Description:
By secondary structure, the protein is an alpha+beta fold. It has three domains: 10-84 and 168-356, 2-Layer Sandwich (BirA Bifunctional Protein, domain 2), CATH 3.30.930; 87-167, Herpes Virus-1, CATH 3.30.40; 388-479, Rossmann fold. It has 16 helices and 23 strands. The chain has helices at residues 5-17, 39-58, 75-80, 82-85, 102-115, 119-134, 138-147, 191-195, 198-204, 250-267, 313-322, 348-359, 401-412, 426-436, 446-451, 472-479; strands at residues 21-23, 35-37, 63-65, 87-92, 99-101, 164-167, 171-174, 182-185, 211-220, 235-245, 275-279, 289-297, 300-311, 328-330, 335-337, 340-347, 360-365, 374-379, 390-394, 418-420, 440-444, 453-458, 464-468. Strands 3-9-10-16-13-12-11 form a seven-stranded mixed sheet. Helix 5 runs antiparallel to helix 6 and helix 6 packs antiparallel against helix 7.
Amino acid sequence: MANDQHKLQAIIAHSKEYGFVFPSSEIYDGLGAVYDYGQYGAQLKKNIRDYWWKSMTQLQENIVGIDAAIFMHPTTWKASGHVDNFSDPMIDNKDSKKRYRVDHLLEARADKLEEEGKADAARLLIGKMEQLLSADDLPGLKTLILEEGIVCPLSGTANWTDVRQFNLMFSTQLGSVAGEAGEIYLRPETAQGIFVNFLNVQKTGRMKIPFGIAQTGKAFRNEIVARQFIFRMREFEQMEMQFFVRPGTELDWYAHWKETRMQWHRSLGIPEDKLQFHDHAKLAHYANAAVDIEYNFPIGFKEVEGIHSRTDYDLRRHQEFSGKKIQYFDPEINKNYIPYVVETSVGLDRTFMMVLSEAYAEEEVATADPAKKDTRTLLKLPPRLSPVKLAVLPLVKKDGLPEIARTLMDECKQQFHCIYEEKDSIGKRYRRQDAIGTPFCVTIDHQTREDQTVTIRYRDSLQQDRLPISMISQLVQDAIR
């Protein structure tokens, strides 16, 4: 439950300064819990998304991908249970008129206890909270808040209302004339677009169980408390896969995907000791098993991905509410049935924050004067994820060096993202590339004109090698595979 606010604030500042993440509508003082991705952030996000998509579809022979609409028939959310069950316990402060999620208040109190060296008290508090949440004991949650002396951050008072459940879905109107419009919802998850297309995909793809359907896309939740940077946002992106299996085999597949997904996170360069499983204390209404993969963010261990055994709840409910038969004929056992489902659901924005948190580093570097200290800030991103793979840097803006650099740039940009820079000293240009996570920098100097060799600099080690210019493109391609 360690909390490193200094590192979190450094990452937030770095993200803005170097074009990764900006507060949305910042010229109008922003919008709570909404962020824009800048030029490097958008590319890093795309690279993570593409890596997930490849691992789920291209490398899996029995998983296909779709792209379902954000708007769905409103009965979808009645069938899924979101209209009746998609809510969180909230509490209002009567003096500030602000509303808070109960678990956020209690988690913040536990973090404070942890900072004070009271780790046992923090764990006890979280245990009590999870028990009360599991039992839907709303009065007990309020009592716990009062016992812990938790006050509103704005008013400083403990003048709380009773705890109540609030639905987290955004609603809007469909139709151009208000009187004729019908209320619909912005989807709070991408999974239902997969479930309502189960038969379409199964029949057109001639899919045989077990098989999966993957999707990435935006989802929307009316989060009350805006905090912790992009960890919890009102508009966010999910990467989900629903794996359809024969009833009775779901827990075996659940165990399979639990380990498979953990390995995927490790493949992003995340150390094993920074990841952990956390079994759900309270199962969702659709699940018979559920676990989170958590990463040790600067704000402590928090969920990045959920793996859930959803039984046949979703398909069965959509069959009931639509009146359409949603079943699969299994030729191996000569039987019709509603498939069971194992879900893997990972937050793209949270994965982005995880990758950024792991990559951010401040390092002392040697200088010509041993008495002087110098520090560089860098992002040690895996090369395959880095927004820019190669920086092409002519040493000076004359003597034909820019022309050689442009020729290399034109060759390489067909294969991967690269950047050309000729402004400032070579040292300053190196530091800028370190800060955005570029793994390779190539310098074209006067020797290049003589023997067609260049200096390649490696971001993490600071090592520099002299190589033929003809080798550069392949070297980078090999590193980003």
